[in-house]
Amino acid sequence: MELKSYFESTDGTGILSTADSNGNVDAAIYSRPLFLEDKIAFIMRDRLTHKNLESNPHAVYLFIEEGPGYKGKRIYLTKVKEEKNSERIASLKRRKKDSNPDEDKFLVFFEFNSERPLVGDN
Q: Which SUPFAM superfamilies does this UniProt record tie to the protein (predicted)?
């Protein structure tokens, strides 16, 4: 998968944007996506981003490459499934220290819809 190679070799900052069923928008800093089972996945806690995805499965992941200028990608996604508190989450976490180990964690899988550059269109 071309995106997997891009995210493995590119440093930057990611923002996952969601909206609830009423159109109330949220944006949150997220690490680079995981690529599992031909899907894009994120580990998330039960906060606003996750709650929005319960009523509206659509999201956009905006990635700003580190360095000068405005380079990066906008990835359009649709949630297809999730795992709650699965053992796989602990093995996939990039940061091993957990500030709140008792809080629910979700491995949320997305179908890739489309990609656009960070600035402008294709």
A: FMN-binding split barrel (SSF50475)
